[in-house]
Amino acid sequence: MPEPLDLSSSHLARLDARSADQDRTLAAMLELEVALEDAAPGREPAWRAGVLTALAVLDDATTDEYTNAVSPDSLLSDIKRTQPRLRTRVRGLRTQYEQLRHAIGAIRVELADPDQEVGDYADVRQRLAWLLTALRHQRARESDLIYEAYYDAFHTDLNTDARR
Q1: Structural domain span for residue 145
Q2: Under a CB-based contact definition with an 8 Å cutoff, are residues 75 and 21 in contact?
């Protein structure tokens, strides 16, 4: 096996930026979960407002994360540029993330419409739970891809190299 290579400072900066994006998105996801757990019957306007506020935070966080992930200097762009065999997976991750972003926006529009009665809170909770699960799945797939790509390129684990 070849000698492990050190990650450059630019690679480490990309890892740090991705980690910060993911931390912000995770915090927004947790905020949405808390809002969804609040009691809804008999306090519909407050419940809806709490969920909408949390969805707005999640929308902002995922927008920033997506924008950073598609930028030319992102980890995914680096993988797409340097590892042709992984290009399709990068494209798939970006497409999936874009679809999740659209779903967040659609649910926000639906809940923000004052003429639209929420009614079935269990259904809204289930749909948003699906969305949160899909976000977690997408994030795990992205992590797997990044670690696979960098292990192949540098013959070292990112966590080990980042601690040096």
Answers
A1: 9-163
A2: no
- The answer as to whether 111 is a domain residue is yes
Whether the Cβ atoms of residue 101 and residue 58 lie closer than 8 Å to each other: no
Per the domain annotation, does 48 fall within a domain? Answer: yes
Q: pLDDT tier at 156 (50, 70, 90 boundaries)?
A: low
DSSP secondary structure code for residue 156 in this structure: S
Find the helix packing angle between 121-154 and 44-70, rounded to 10°. 20
Q: Quick one: pLDDT at residue 34?
A: 96
Please state, in angstroms and as integers, the Cα–Cα distance from residue 16 to each residue in 10, 35, 94, 97, 163, following that order.
Answer: 10, 29, 19, 20, 12
Is the pLDDT reported for residue 3 higher than 50? no
The total domain count for the chain is 1
pTM for the structure as a whole: 0.83
